[in-house]
Amino acid sequence: MKTVEDYIFDYQGKEKEVLIFFHDMLMEMPGVTCKIRFKIPFYYQKTWVCYLNPVKPNKIAICFLRGYEMSNEQGLLESKGRKQVMSAEFATVDEIPETAMQEIVNEAFLLDEMVPYHPKGK
Q1: % of residues, the chain, pLDDT over 90
Q2: Hey, what domains does the chain have and what are their CATH numbers?
Q3: Scanning 30, 67, 106, 119, which has its CA 20 to 30 A from the CA of 86?
């Protein structure tokens, strides 16, 4: 079974640095694990918190499964027509506002830890 690290280091494209950047940031969070699901890296604490998804043209999206429950004070997250997931896309590490993204990641994991997940429609 392919690990997330295998996925990242086998990735072909200049966006590999973005994958490495976010993987390192996410794995620094306490209690986080990662797995390949649906052929992409997912990051968990109590539930699925986020995933890294290659998108066209040549970008990596960091997608938060409970994005609509987050504040988005930084204004970086977009819904792209999705009902729950919100994401931000980057082509290079230089484009990533590191402090703002760390705030978003912290909020996502705090939400997962503190607020029980109740799927819409149930």
Answers
A1: 85
A2: 4-114 (3.90.1150.200)
A3: 30
